[in-house]
Design a protein that fits this description.
five-stranded mixed beta sheet; about 160 residues
């Protein structure tokens, strides 16, 4: 009789697992602001967040490349997000060093905000226009703000 009760109890436990909702897949994003908009970069692309680095000017580079920095012996080009997206530059900025297809690139942004888990299903595609060629999606964050998903490869190759 005791074995029958154990089997029933084990069967009831198995049923509990089938009633649970499926696990929601999320990805971590680093959220930053630029020109009063919130952007997100997948956290696995972010290698460093930097402040107070001297940027060395380089001649004959695109206007949105502010120059290069020496980060622990590695020379990293610094791309101003505002200039790249056709906005007015800001002299108060911080840098996010990202890995884009094996190349380290610095992005100058207004402010790094936070790290957030974003459900993958909540990211919606956006129509591509000239000003948003580097935006691959958008979603509403848990706090109600809207995040534009920045595609670093598109940002640098477009």
């Amino acid at each position: 009789m005791q074995q029958t009760e154990e089997v029933l109890f084990a069967t009831e436990q198995e049923d509990d697992y089938t009633d649970q909702p499926p696990e929601i897949q999320t990805t971590k994003y680093l959220i930053f602001s630029s020109d009063n908009l919130l952007y997100g970069i997948k956290a696995d692309q972010v290698k460093d967040i930097i402040t107070d680095y001297a940027i060395t000017y380089l001649p004959q580079v695109p206007g949105y490349v502010r120059g290069v920095i020496n980060l622990r012996g590695q020379i990293i080009p610094m791309v101003d997000i505002r200039l790249r997206l056709g906005k007015v530059p800001n002299d108060n900025f911080c840098g996010i060093v990202v890995d884009v297809d094996g190349n380290m690139v610095g992005l100058l942004v207004d402010m790094v905000e936070k790290m957030v888990d974003v459900p993958l299903a909540s990211i919606l595609p956006v129509p591509t226009t000239n000003g948003q060629a580097a935006i691959s999606g958008m979603c509403t964050l848990p706090d109600g703000d809207t995040m534009l998903e920045l595609d670093c490869a598109l940002l640098l190759n477009h």
